[in-house]
Design brief:
globular, alpha/beta, Glutaredoxin
């Protein structure tokens, strides 16, 4: 089974060797900026359907110093051990802070888990309103 992302894509691809410490922070030589982490499984239909849009969104967000990270959560046991309780289904989108720490599941203003690209944008633009303008452009990416 092939993976959904590779090193040539505009996202930062993580695996178990990308983390350090007991809290599994992203290593400094890999960490780029704050952003979000898409935890996915390569067999998941919803995950596959979002690949093109995640790549498109990643290109846009880089202009604002926001990075899209991705990890095959189904094939990285260390990640699964540390974050498996947050992953209730695929894909799951988690926040990445300014220090490379992986945080909580991304949610909407109403506290619902984010499942769409416009939802990611909405969640991110709470911290940077310049990002909000892309919600309409990315509306076709549910």
């Amino acid at each position: 089974m092939s993976d959904l992302y590779n090193e040539k894509d505009p996202v930062t691809v993580l695996d178990d060797s990308s983390f350090i410490g007991s809290n599994c922070r992203i290593k400094k030589n890999i960490f780029d900026n704050h952003g979000f982490l898409k935890a996915y499984a390569p067999w998941c239909g919803h995950c596959k359907s979002k690949v093109k849009c995640i790549k498109k969104l990643s290109r846009i967000l880089k202009e604002y110093g926001v990075t899209a990270y991705v990890i095959n959560a189904d094939n990285n046991p260390i990640f699964k051990e540390h974050f498996g309780d947050k992953i209730k289904g695929f894909p799951t989108f988690l926040r990445v802070d300014d220090s490379g720490n992986i945080g909580e599941v991304m949610t909407t203003k109403d506290g619902e888990q984010v499942h769409t690209i416009p939802g990611i944008i909405s969640s991110l633009c709470a911290n940077d309103t310049r990002i909000c303008q892309y919600a309409e452009i990315m509306e076709d990416c549910n």
